[in-house]
Amino acid sequence: MSRFLRPVATLTLLLGSCFAVAHAAVPALQEALSQLAPQANPKVIGLALAATECAAAQGQPPSDRLAVIDYSRPSTEPRLWVFDLTRRKLLYHELVAHGRNTGENLATRFSNTPESLQSSLGLFRTLGTYAGHNGYSLRMEGLEPGTNDHALERALVIHGAAYVNPALARQQGRIGRSYGCPAVRSAVARPLIDALKGGQYVFSYYPDAHWLGSSPYLKCSVGRAMTASLAAP
User: Fold this and answer.
1) Dist CA 214 CA 167 (whole Å)
2) The CATH homologous superfamily of the domain defined by 6-231
3) Distance of CA 39 to the CA centre of its chain
4) Gap between the Cα atoms of 155 and 146, Å rounded
5) What is the DSSP letter of 27?
6) Phi and psi (nearest 5°) for 125?
7) What pTM did the predictor assign?
8) Radius of gyration of the chain (CA)
């Protein structure tokens, strides 16, 4: 082999090895997190991990923590999980609200449009905190063009809300709804936000065929494999 080609070949092998390790790491971490959160759909956890791996492959920095929201579940069930990926710990399993125009107890409609009062799907990265109309809140940047990239403009933030509580769910058959924000119980809002602030990932899932087929973070090989697994019986 030419001495000029050897560095290129070595780099190619190294990159291939890195992607192989990443590809192999997703199922292993998926299994570990699924054991921590047995109520969660393991395929959704795998899809969230695949999206973060794909994002890293496309230049996004990795994160230590990951929030997974499964909007296919009713609002009366805890459907938000916050994981510490480094220590492999489940930090929170909580109720979370969806947007007023996304549905009643069941979420069915999602949007990236300002003033739609609907939730958005896809991969988000958290930014900084602030004290606003809803108290201590966490800004999120939507990473998916056309799906959630208006999140900052729409002020889709994580915040606490009195209408997110089990008693209200029992009374009216659903928790209260937001203007599109993933609102959580007031009692856990501050520590949960502190766990997620500063560049962590939030992944919002729903079995929407268009999003699953078009998301830039589900097009890597591991993402395609996990998307296909969701379609399997």
Assistant:
1) 38
2) L,D-transpeptidase catalytic domain-like (2.40.440.10)
3) 16
4) 16
5) H
6) -120, 135
7) 0.87
8) 18
Q: Residue 231: its pLDDT value, please?
A: 59
The whole-number pLDDT of residue 224 equals 73
What amino acid is encoded at 112 in this protein? Answer: N
Strands 89-94 and 65-70, by their bridges, are unpaired
H/E stretch holding 48 reads helix 42-57
For the chain, which ranges sit under pLDDT 70? 1-25, 221-223, 225-226, 230-233
HEC sequence for the chain: CCCCCHHHHHHHHHHHHHHHHHHHHHHHHHHHHHHHCCCCCHHHHHHHHHHHHHHHHCCCCCCCEEEEEECCCCCCCCCEEEEECCCCEEEEEECCCCECCCECCCECCCCCCCCCCCCCCEEEEEEEEEEECCEEEEEEEECCCCCCCCHHHHCCEEEEECCCCHHHHHHHCCCCCECCCCCEEHHHHHHHHHHHCCCCEEEEECCCHHHHHHCCCCCCHHHHHHHHHHHCC
Phi and psi at residue 112, to the nearest 5°: -110, 5
- Per-residue burial over 194-212, b if 16 or more Cβ lie within 10 Å, else e, is ebbbebbbbbbbbebeebb
